[in-house]
Design a protein that fits this description.
mainly beta, six-stranded mixed beta sheet, 49% strand
């Protein structure tokens, strides 16, 4: 059973940057496409970005395209999300998981709060 631990969130002013990390343990990770998601209060979980197992293919939602960059380090079992030019509407809890079929359990997520 793969366990996911997200970190790197925090409070930042609009226009600032944060780098999120997701550490995977307990199972096979490197052969799967991974994604970053977020969930704001009262909203459904939203897919933001995905990266293929080789890192050669990425996808970004329109809401983050050009501002966020997903990457992975299979040797370290980690997936990262570099977030630039943050906006107040980026405020949410951020999660990583396998895409399109998530692993059985989600991590606790990491809170990102962007002040205006």
């Amino acid at each position: 059973q793969v366990q996911l631990v997200e970190s790197g969130g925090g409070l930042v002013q609009a226009g600032g940057s944060l780098r999120l990390s997701c550490a995977a343990s307990g199972g096979t990770f490197t052969i799967y496409t991974m994604g970053w998601f977020r969930q704001a209060p009262g909203k459904e979980r939203e897919l933001l970005a995905t990266i293929s197992w080789t890192g050669g293919r990425t996808y970004y939602a329109d809401s983050v395209k050009g501002r966020f960059t997903i990457s992975r380090d299979n040797a370290k079992n980690m997936v990262s999300l570099q977030m630039n030019t943050l906006k107040p509407e980026d405020t949410a809890v951020y999660y990583c998981n396998r895409y399109p079929i998530p692993f059985g359990s989600w991590g606790q997520g990491t809170q990102v709060t962007v002040s205006s």
